[in-house]
Design goal:
The structure is a single chain. This protein is an all-alpha fold. It contains three helices and no strands.
Length: 96
């Protein structure tokens, strides 16, 4: 296919973000599934592409989960530090 969502131009444009990389990889997987090989050689290459794209998608999704978890931990730590600062300032003002 050379039009619509599967077009290489669209894949390159959307792949500039992390979510775009995932979308481009999923599009590549859809293309691999829709591909009908003419001979055994093409079938082997298509299976290889499918396997590599599947592993890439898995790595991207795991990385995305890890990044989101780290971001949530960082936000929690920042909120906790802010709360502790506010409590320390409140106690200091009451002591004066």
């Amino acid at each position: 296919m050379s039009h619509g969502f599967f077009s290489p131009g669209n894949a390159r444009k959307s792949a500039r973000t992390f979510d775009g990389e995932i979308a481009a990889t999923r599009a590549m997987l859809r293309r691999a599934i829709a591909f009908y090989p003419r001979d055994l050689s093409e079938a082997v290459r298509a299976l290889d592409l499918f396997g590599r794209a599947t592993m890439r998608l898995k790595r991207l999704i795991l990385l995305e989960r890890e990044l989101k978890a780290n971001l949530q931990e960082t936000e929690f730590e920042q909120a906790l530090e802010q709360a502790l600062r506010e409590i320390a300032e409140e106690w200091k003002s009451k002591a004066d």
